[in-house]
Amino acid sequence: MSIAQNLLSIKNNLPEQVTLVAVSKTKPVPDLMEAYEAGQRIFGENKIQEMAEKWEQMPKDIQWHMIGHVQTNKVKFMAPFVSLVHGVDSFKLLKEINKQAAKNERVIDCLLQIHIAEEETKFGLDELELDSLMESNEFQEMKNIRIVGLMGMATFTDNQNQIKKEFTHLKSVFNNLSSKNELQHFSTLSMGMSGDFKLAIECGSTMVRIGSSIFGTR
Ligand SMILES: *Cc1c(COP(=O)(O)O)cnc(C)c1O
C-alpha cells in the first residue's frame, strides 16, 4: 500500500476525538508530501535540526510536533515554529522553552513526559517531580509556555497486559492532574505508536504518534 493509503486507512479508523501525528523522522520530504497531499497536516519529528529543515522546505500550514528528547541548547532552533513539544521532562527544559518562546513572542504548547515504562532508558518525570514542578511558583509565572497535557511511552514488550497497565496508569495521572489543577487547556493525552495505538485509545489516549505503519519501516 502507498503512504496515502496507509494514512487514510488509519485515519478513517480513529475515533473522532483522537488526533493523528504522522511520525516522519528519517523519511525524505517527498514521502511527507505524499501524506500532506492526502490531507495530513500534523507531522512529528524527533530531531530538531531535521524538523527545521523540513519546516523550511514544506508548506507553512503544517503543524510540527517535536516528539523526541530535547536538548536544552537546541530549543532556540525550533522556537520560531514548533506547534507542540511532547517530551518535556525537566524543569530546566521547560524554562528554556519559555525563554525562547518569549524571544519569539509566542506561547509554545507543551506536554509533560511521564515515565511509565519499566526501562530505565525512557525519559520522563516521575510523579513527585511532576507535582513539585506544577506547584512551584516559578512554573506559575511562566507566561510563554502552556501545558496542554501529558505524554508517555510504554515498555517495549509483547506483553499486552503490561502495556495496558502502563497506559492506564498514565491516564489516571492525567485525570488527577486535570481535576487538581486549574489548567485551562489541559486536554491532550499523547500515548500510542504503530504497535500499541489501539490499546492506547482504549485506555484514553487523545493523540497517537504513528510512524512505520504510515511511512514504512525505518
Ligand atoms: C518513532 C516514534 C514514534 C513512532 O513509532 P512507530 O513505531 O514508527 O509508529 C512515536 N513516538 C515517539 C516518541 C517516537 O520516537
From TrEMBL:
Cofactor(s) annotated in UniProt: pyridoxal 5'-phosphate
Keyword Lyase carried by entry:
no
Provide the positions where the record notes the PTM N6-(pyridoxal phosphate)lysine. 25
Q: Which UniProt keywords apply?
A: Pyridoxal phosphate
Which Pfam families does the UniProt record give? Answer: Ala_racemase_N
InterPro entries per record: Ala_racemase_N, PLP-binding_barrel, PyrdxlP_homeostasis
Every copy of the Alanine racemase N-terminal domain together lies at 3-217
HAMAP family on file: PLP_homeostasis (MF_02087)
Described purpose of this protein according to its UniProt entry: Pyridoxal 5'-phosphate (PLP)-binding protein, which is involved in PLP homeostasis.
Family note: Belongs to the pyridoxal phosphate-binding protein YggS/PROSC family.
Name of the protein in question: Pyridoxal phosphate homeostasis protein
Species annotation: Flavobacterium frigoris (strain PS1)
